[in-house]
Amino acid sequence: MQHSRNSMARRKTESTTQILSTLKAASSAMSHQMIQEELDIEVDRATIYRVLNRFCEDGMVHRVIGENGKQYFALCEGCEKENHSHNHFHFRCKNCGKVECLSREIEIKLPAGYVAQNFNGLISGVCAQCA
Amino acid sequence: MQHSRNSMARRKTESTTQILSTLKAASSAMSHQMIQEELDIEVDRATIYRVLNRFCEDGMVHRVIGENGKQYFALCEGCEKENHSHNHFHFRCKNCGKVECLSREIEIKLPAGYVAQNFNGLISGVCAQCA
DNA sequence: CTTATTATTGCAACACAGTCGCAATAGTAT
DNA sequence: ATACTATTGCGACTGTGTTGCAATAATAAG
Ligand SMILES: [Mn+2]
Ligand SMILES: [Mn+2]
Ligand SMILES: [Zn+2]
Ligand SMILES: [Zn+2]
Prior knowledge:
2 copies of one chain form a homodimer.
Chain A: H1 14-25, H2 32-38, H3 45-57, E1 61-65, E2 71-75, E3 88-93, E4 99-105, E5 115-126
Parallel strand pairs in A: 3-5
Antiparallel strand pairs in A: 1-2, 3-4
Helix pairs in contact in A: 2-3
The complex binds manganese (II) ion (MN) (2 copies) and zinc ion (ZN) (2 copies).
One manganese (II) ion (MN) binds near residues 62, 86, 88, 90 and 101 of chain B.
The first copy, chain A, binds a DNA duplex through helix 3.
Protein name (chains A, B): Fur family transcriptional regulator, ferric uptake regulator
GO molecular function (chains A, B): DNA-binding transcription factor activity; transcription cis-regulatory region binding; zinc ion binding
Pfam families (chains A, B): FUR
């Protein structure tokens, strides 16, 4: 089977399937570390990052930057393959560390001539469970 | 003169005044590195961070987290000393690196029981000058 | 099934951001 | 001038995320 001219398709490995199902099982966005702790098998840190970056490239996962500067990854739910925008906020609880998607899509008007490529909205505080 | 019971007032030093005026001169948010490069005198990295953190504590400056996970600092303009909220977006140009405040204040509704402590909104892309 | 191709992995090394302890320095009040 | 202590520089440290390289393993082809 042919794929894009210069590259083969993604390969299905133990690491990729486990990371993917971990993200599916979680209802929230996870850091590389949270993922690593959930995995049944041992997977190298670098590999986890590479897998996640691939997932993002392929549009299966979106990346969130916390107010702590760290990356969190969440499965894409209702994503158009075409118009792949994740303009929604996330909430990170400073107590339990959970990072949730807030679902409502936001629209931000930019000054004339500005081109948006990436959206990152995050509110941190204390979640209902921890309050 | 008395200040809060356990701590002396802030002291005016060459570092603090220079960093402050650098932020005033800049129309945009700056990283610790951008600041360091602008300074006339040499100031240690750790000191710059400490000064900036103090400015944030005192509510003179607000902190922005880029989609690159890095911190940027901008002077507070029209800030109430009481209700000190910076619920506006920022735009970071991936080409020239400039980080601008988008001024319009945003309101985000959180699920019941959630308490917001911090807002970070950032859109990255290409600015009008670089487009 | 066997073989060839090459995507994926583990490991080590790296770059960088941001923090912190400690001793030296320098504002500020008296 | 002196005492007090906030601030600084330095070095060391933690943690995140990336990358080069050689070994491994998924997949297609025969
Ligand atoms: Mn999300
Ligand atoms: Mn701002
Ligand atoms: Zn919580
Ligand atoms: Zn630009």
